[in-house]
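pipeline: protein-struct stage 2 | run 1193 | Type-4 uracil-DNA glycosylase
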Amino acid sequence: MEQDQTMKDWLENLMTCQACHLRQEGNRGPTRYTGNITSPLMFVGEGPGGVEDEYGVPLVGPSGQLLDKALWSVGLTRDRVYVTNIVKCRPKNNRTPTLDEGRHCADIHLVKEIDLVQPKVIVCLGKVAFQYFYGKAASIMRNRGKWFTWRGYPVMPTYHPAFLLRQTGHDLVESKWQVYYDFKAAVEKAKAENPDYTYQSPEKTNLLEQYTALKESRSF
Ligand code: URA
């Protein structure tokens, strides 16, 4: 109840945010989170693309569809994990947010979000998320699957689903397996901390259906 109330305040603050130029870059406004606010597992992506801007939530476009499949393969559903982004407003022309834009947005919103959710494990999807938590530029290729600690939270970087979507042949097979093992390690760690939580619903979550009303309420 307490967490719900504070989450409501956090959301209100997010939805009225004008703290940087990204809000002016021709998008429909900030995107929120998907999933369960009591989840031990948090996944942090980069920033919204076109579909996410339309629906108002993270990772529901092509990358999100792949993420959902990968989650299912390790016994997770989207309604049972918490998914969010470093940057909440879609940068113009889908460009990758800069490290400074990521820092500015995440220092205001994501840090508070993490304190509210208090996940047992944070998984960074891709370079933008990894570099925010890691505090400096570092190779995701060399660091994926490794644990480090951010403000007491165990954090693991892995590839962004968009990276997998760009791979073909042997590279694709290899990187899919790497993500699978990274996700598996993250679930194991979360389960060791919180074995009683339900990590998977019987059915996959249909986020596009779930957020149709939110989509209809969003406009330029
Ligand atoms: N990529 C991300 O990292 N987040 C989204 O919400 C969409 C694409």
